[in-house]
Design goal:
The chain is of the alpha/beta class and 557 residues long. It is built from 22 helices and 18 strands. It comes from Kalanchoe fedtschenkoi.
Amino acid sequence: MLTGRRSLMHTLRKKGGLSGYTSRSESDYDAFGAAHGCNSVSAGLGMAIARDCKGSWERVVTIISNESTMAGQSYEAMSNAGYLDSNMIVILNDSRNSLHPKLDEGSKTSINALSSTLSKLQSSKSFRRLREAAKGVTKKIGMGMHELAAKVDEYARGMLGPSGSTLFEELGLYYIGPVDGHNIEDLISVLQEVASLDSMGPVLVHVITKGNLVADVNQKNEVSTTQPEVPVNFHPRSYTDYLVEALVMETEEDKDIVTVHAGSVMEPSLRLLQEKFPDNFFDVGMAEQHAVTFSAGLSCGGLKPFCIIPSALLQRTYSQVVHDVDQQKLPVRFAISNAGLAGGNGPVQSGAFDITFMSCLPNMVVMAPSNEGELVDMVATAAHYDDGPICFRYPSGAVDRTDNFIRSGLPLEIGRGTIVAEGKDVAFLAYGTMVQNCLKARSLLSELGIEVTVANARFCKPLDIKLLRQLCENHSFLITVEEGSVGGFGSHVAQFIALDGRLDGTVKWRPLTLPDNYVEQASLKEQVALAGLSGHHIAATALSLLGRKREALLLMR
């Protein structure tokens, strides 16, 4: 709102509106695109060094939350910042959130009159000049006195500061804090002093805030609005709900099953799983690389880990997936959440690439359910699969079901798909939830007298070769459909049918994937249409393949 976008706030996360994250293409005030956390110090340091190389003078300020400091990149960046000693300011926004409730009950960094005074003293020009002068004297004395004095100064200030401040000093950042983030006068005073310092090197300002203040204000100022009536017992269920209940059933049967969760937010149903099996559940926060290798270690120790990671965050730990899991053929079970398009969260949280980068690994079994029932079956499949790593993806959002019954999962035969509906003119081979869109397309085409077969692949790797050959033998037209990038399921199908000689004859094949660009934020329905994966788009593709292009155009009106 302070950067000229106040009048557009009503468009937040909507099609053609504001993105909800800093975006270089959206505003000159957005210096760097951030959203996944932990990257601000690295980007800021890069900007500071670029400034120094060009001989210009701008102040570089980066903000990072205490939740983001769970990720190793933030410490790598701070260590490098301390070594390079370039002028920059890091503001640690400490909302006092913790992964561990027991730690929350213990002592926290206190803010009182003394700490406020010390923070002002630490950031003052006179204090900094005194310290710099002392450093100069010890350098002249020599004989290691400079290093000794630096250590004495560091640990003395560590004793005055809160626990943990010495860590930042060891990394090479000058620590100031804690500062009360809700005492605007003190906060401005400290920031002004820090901004006025010359040749200061990297400085970390530790600001204590309360993250739930907005929620508290909203509850106090709650207003009555007219909402459509919803049945009292109706609670929209998500794919994660079904995943959790399936994991509960499997864990009750096999106590070697453990769950590792990585990500910035944990859904309520996952918290219930954590409460039910506290010794079998590990939440590591935004430490995806650790989560994968930790899961590999659990597997080496004889346990059966389910590693739950959002698709967009799995990208950050690909090296660990390759070297620590797949190369060693360890039976780690990856539950890839938030797969596919992300609606209002746009390309930042979009899970577009996991099919491609997981299916190219030699030892990885890659699955995707067409609905919540198959998700339950795939949890059971993964629980019983011990021959190597296995993964399955599932989308975010609510499931279109009114009953709450969940049956026990039935392990699927590895690499076996199924035919959902049969026809003779065109075959749709769908992967994951795109099966539902293919069924919609089949309904549209049936009104035009076209009979369509819809097959549910279930597995991207290994492919159901028998099913593929059957579809090619019985149909002249084959269309593959997936909610993933180029290079995924369709590419594996193309590789097989080309090598099998199926494309040498009468079979015509067309792939439908996500486009080779980032799909901007909009509603999920709008995004699917933009990507050309709606029922109407799939039906129009079939009509074009059949040579009925005029009808295809009419269908898209």
